[in-house]
Structures are given as C-alpha cells and as structure tokens.
Amino acid sequence: MAGLKDHPIAERIRLKPPGPPPATLSIEALKALTLECGADDCGVISLDDPLMGDEAAHARRAFPGAKLAVSIVCRMHRNAVRSPVRSAANNEFHKVSHEVDDVARDLVRRLEEMGVSAMNPPMAFPMEFDRYPERAWVVSHKIVAEAAGLGKRGLHRSLIHPKFGSFILLGTVLVDLDVEAPAMPLDYNPCFECRLCVVACPVGAIKPDGYFDFSTCLNHNYQQFMGGFTNWVEDIADSKSAKDYRKRHPVAETVKRWQSLSYGPNYNAAYCIAVCPAGEEIMEGYLADKKAHVEKVVKPLQEKGEPLYVVRGSDAESHAAKIFPHKTLRYVRTAARATSIGAFLFGVTLSFQRDKSKGLNATYHFVFTGKEPAEATMVIKDQKLTVSEGLIGEADLRIQADSAAWLKTLDGSLSVVLALAQRKIRLKGPLRLLKAFGACFPS
C-alpha cells in the first residue's frame, strides 16, 4: 500500500504549478457578491469590533480562521405572515429560512472558488443542543446584523430593517478575510413604539413598558419546538393507555406534532412581527390609513379562536383569560428546563413572572454543594429580579442545597418537602419566602 510520499494524488499536487493567491476583496465587492448570491440586503462587520462582544469567541469556536461576519437579509412576503391561517405564515417562515441558508452556502462556495475560506453556520435549525437549554446557536444573527447597520431590535425583540421592517429573516457567513470592516450601526431605531405588538400578543409576553417575558413567549409560540416536544414525549411515556394519552393531548394536538415533525416546527403566533408597521415599505400604507391597518391586520389575529399554551399560575394565564376570553387556554409545563446550576441561575431571569412577585421584597442567598458548587444572590424587589454571583448583603432566606437534588426539584422528580426532610435542602429563614419565590417561577 503506497504511503503519502508515493501516493499518486500527492505526486500530482507536488507537480502542480502554483495557483493564484487568494483574492483580495474590498468590503463593497464582498457585499456585491452577497447580493449576487440572492440576499435582499447585507452588511459586513469585523469580529473584533467591540459591538460584537462575545460573539467573536463563539464564531471562532465554529470556524477558527474567522475574521469577518457577513450578515444576510432575506425578506418575507407580508400577507402570508399576517394571515390568521398559520399554515401560510409557517410556510413562509420555512421557505425563507431555507432561502437564507441557500444564499449563505452559495456565498461560501463562491468565496472558496476565489481562494477565500468561509463557513456558513445554520440560519436556525439544526443547532448545537449538547448543552441545552444553554446557548445552542453558533452565532447571534441579530447582533451581527445590528452591528452591520441592517436594523435595530424593536419592542418585540426582533430586528427591524429600515426598509423591509420586521418581515425579514437573517443569516451569517464567517469569512477569513483580512480587511477593515468597522461597525456602522443605524443612528436611529426603525421601531417607533406603536405598541401594536403588545396588543396583538395573545399571551402578553411583550409589556407596554418594554419588558419581555421570554418564558411566556417560549411556552406558547414555540410549543412545537424543543421543550414542548420534550414534555410531549414524556406525556406519551407516562400515559397508561391511548385513552389516558388523549386526555392529555386531543387528536388535533397530536396531528400538530406530526406536522411539525414532517414539515418543520410550527410557530403558534409570531403576531408581533405580523402587525408591525415599522420599515419604509410597510409604514407607507400604515400612515395612509392607520385604522385600516388595525382592522385588516391586527383585529383578525386578536379575534381568532385558537389554543393558547400557558403555564398554570403564570402571568400569561391571567393575561389571556382577561384579554382574550374567546381563546382556549391549554395548560402546559414550562418549556424551559434547567439541567445544570449554571442554566438555573441564567434561566431565572428569563422565566421570572413579575406580576406574581407583586408585594414581595426579599433577598435570597443560594449555596449549592455537591457536583456543581456555586453561590449566588437573588433580590426580588418592586417586581424586579436581580441575580448576582456570590453572597451579597444580608439574606432574608438562605437556601443551601445539594446541586443534584435542587435540579430534581425543578423537574418534578423530587418534591421540595422530601428534599427538606432528607436535609438535601436546608433553609435559614421563613419557609413562606421559599413558597413566595416558587410562585414567581410557575412550571
């Protein structure tokens, strides 16, 4: 068997005349190439720019040679996204998401033909779920796009393009090209805070003051994704019979899971994007007749009869029952799960239910022992939660817990009462404060 020294391919490479050096592209040439590949807009930003923050480290873990990030924008058809018929909206999301990946892949191929190394992380799925529910995405497309001057995040937390508005999907290509690409963020925000996203959200995830309830959005809009799918599988495993399963999930729910498995996970709402009038192309019609925009776009979504996926005892339950009594509440377990102490300490800021914390003013010290030792301070005051590393100030309640036991109480496999009886959780302070803390995080 021939070794590398005598291998015919290696011999052909040694005899091959030197090829041209890698192409030297200007930023404008790189943008032009991206548009030629099918993007509706694009921008370029250096990974070392301060606006990129920690994204550079994440990007270089995926592609060690990365120096630039090319942000890709592809526009969606507005009427499909606005439709109360969710199949039309979801079809548009899926089609355009594949289009973004196709543009990115074509750009990488074209660059490599020029001798420039590049890599295209996925626009969305698949992601890196080894450490779920911690960060799963390779690079934050929103951060890249914002730094590259392609828009700003609005009240609804999605990026708003100055021309195409909220009706866009984003992608990123990482490029090993040594040219200067300073950040050029917009000097204004296309969002003008009309708050139509607030009134359209069926579960109240977006608050009038700008607060965003992440877990409420996750539990409803993403019910067919990740955490909701995990809970569904566990419901199947726990069911005693087909009849028992149907009590948990009506036939329509099961068919929805089949649809998501077959054609891609389906969003239940995304109404915040659908009603958004920001962006030059969309605002023109909105300014011409604001009332018509509300009648034709906002009200059909508000008036639609549909299931709303909420956790019992959550702010979303209260909001939906009061504002949308004609919609059906479907009680679910929280889709966000902490599988590590680090994920718990990060996740509490996303799952905090501020209306349930009304009247609570307390400082909690957490001391975790065992496999994942950690110390943290959580302060709940004036319906706000702050989390700090270490033990700060004087605690109203000190909670010392074996880390593995604490995580089991979170997923329901160990009751808090039993954990207290077994001394796996120890309290120094009133038990009522532990109950009040739990009420702020219904699961």
Write the layout of secondary structure elements.
Layout: H1 8-15, H2 27-36, E1 41-46, H3 55-62, E2 68-75, H4 78-82, H5 86-113, E3 118-119, H6 141-147, E4 152-153, E5 159-160, E6 168-175, H7 196-200, H8 214-221, H9 226-238, H10 242-248, H11 251-263, H12 271-274, H13 280-288, H14 290-303, E7 307-310, H15 315-323, E8 328-331, H16 341-351, E9 362-369, E10 374-381, E11 384-389, E12 397-402, H17 403-411, H18 416-421, E13 425-428, H19 431-439
Helix pairs in contact: 13-14
Task: Characterise the protein shown here.
By secondary structure, the chain is an alpha+beta fold. It is 41% helix and 15% strand. The strands form four sheets. It has a five-stranded mixed sheet with strand order 11-10-9-12-13. Strands 1-2-6-3 form a four-stranded antiparallel sheet, with helices on both faces. A two-stranded antiparallel ribbon has the order 4-5. A hairpin with a 4-residue loop joins strand 9 (362-369) and strand 10. It is globular and about 80 Å long. The termini are far apart. The relative contact order is 0.09. The mean pLDDT is 94.
Spatial strand sequence of the major β-sheet: 11-10-9-12-13
Structural class: alpha+beta
| DSSP strand content | 15-25%
Inertia-based shape: globular
Biggest sheet descriptor: 5 strands, mixed
Low-confidence stretches: none
**Number of helical regions:** 19
